Known about the structure:
Blueprint (H helix, E strand, L loop, with lengths): L1 E6 L16 H11 L3 E3 L6 H10 E3 L5 E3 L5 E9 L5 E6 L2 H11 L20 H10 L3 E4 L9 H4 L3 H5 L8 E3 L6 H4 L9 E3 L16 E6 L4 H9 L6 E6 L11 E2 L8 H6 L11 E2 L2 H8 L12 E4 L3 H9 L7 H14 L2 H7 L2 H7 L1 H12 L2 E4 L8 E4 L3 H16 L4 H4 L5
Parallel strand pairs: 1-2, 2-5, 8-9, 11-14
Antiparallel strand pairs: 1-10, 3-4, 4-5, 5-6, 6-7, 10-11, 12-13, 15-16
Helix pairs in contact: 11-12, 11-15, 14-15
Bound molecules: zinc ion (2 copies).
Amino acid sequence: MREFDCDLHYHSPYSVGVSKNMLIPIIAEQAELKGLNLLSSADCLNGHWLKHLKQNLIEEENGIFKAKNNSINFVLGTEVQCSDRLHHVVFLPDFNAIEEVRKKFSNHTRELDSIMGGRPRLRLNAEQVAEIIFDAKGILGPAHAFTPYFGVFAYFDSIKTAYGEQGKKISFMELGLSADTFLADKIPENRNYVFLSNSDSHSPWPFRLGREFNRIKLKQPSFKELKKALEKKEEKRISLNVGLDPKEGKYHRTACQSCYLKYSLNEAERVKWKCIECGKEIKRGVKERIEMLSDGKNKSPDFRPEYLHSLPLQEIIQSSVKIKLITSNKIQVLWKKFVEEFNSEINILVDEPIENLIKVDKDIGEKIDCFRKGFVLFEEGGGGKYGKPIICKNKKEFEQKKFELEQKEKKQFSSEQKKLFDF
Ligand SMILES: [Zn+2]
Ligand SMILES: [Zn+2]
């Protein structure tokens, strides 16, 4: 079996807010630099994008497609929105299955051939959508399950209840940028599911495409093998999840939407979700939502792979050279130098021995080492404000900075204000 680095969810220019550069030849070229081997086609139910896919992809056997400029593998996939306001990640075996599903969906949406319908909104509930996809021999699971908008846990307490009769056929869930394995496995039901970490990218550049990805073991790239990887958890086909630390997410912690003071669930309830500093609304965070559904145990099932927190290489370079603009020339030059030396960005972030990286640039090499060892702290995001990474040199600095951050948070309210949390 071979390992494939896979990004299985992003969008085409026919979804809202997506770069015009999101075209198969560019996606394939950038995926190669990133080090991805298998991608979703994205938005495969949209008529306009389908035409682009047929023109730019060559069909191989077994549901695999290749771009004309390199050997990156694609499977047919998309995201759809149902009438329960949930997003679903979908994969289909071939163009015939796409036509079958388009026909069934066309009675329930006008967006399949709209120029903004890459992620079609369907007047069918989650159960009905799942049934149509499964009838077409497709695969389906919840997208970014924890986001406060369109994530299954925003509206439901479990995946089973969201999908009704089809619930037992759901085998995987996508974590999304706001959660990781450690958070998701706090909810007991989730320990039954395979986890995917995908970028949901809106542009093809390597600081977006593949910013989250999955390392998956396949005998050969094929739709059937991917299906196995997602459905047969006991085969442990997913060998690594890589993604951003959810603490960076802007809705990670429960916090005031105006002044960003952080609250525990109890504190927010005591003050009726009104900030005691500025009076504005407090927004519940993903961390607290997960706490509500948790059984208090920190355990992952035996089949669960490691989750590596990382940042795109350009962002690591950015923090090293201290330049605000990520597209600046200096960052691009350094990025290119690394990728030319070591083949791909994923190889640099995950696999290449650190001593080799340090030879090219000591500071950047050491920073990547810190990510691999988990010595990265965050001023946590919340209330709509992104978190900020603090990359520590070693365990000692990590512990020291962690203590300082905890102290700082304890002091955010005055003793007078703290009395408002008591009865
Ligand atoms: Zn979505
Ligand atoms: Zn406030």
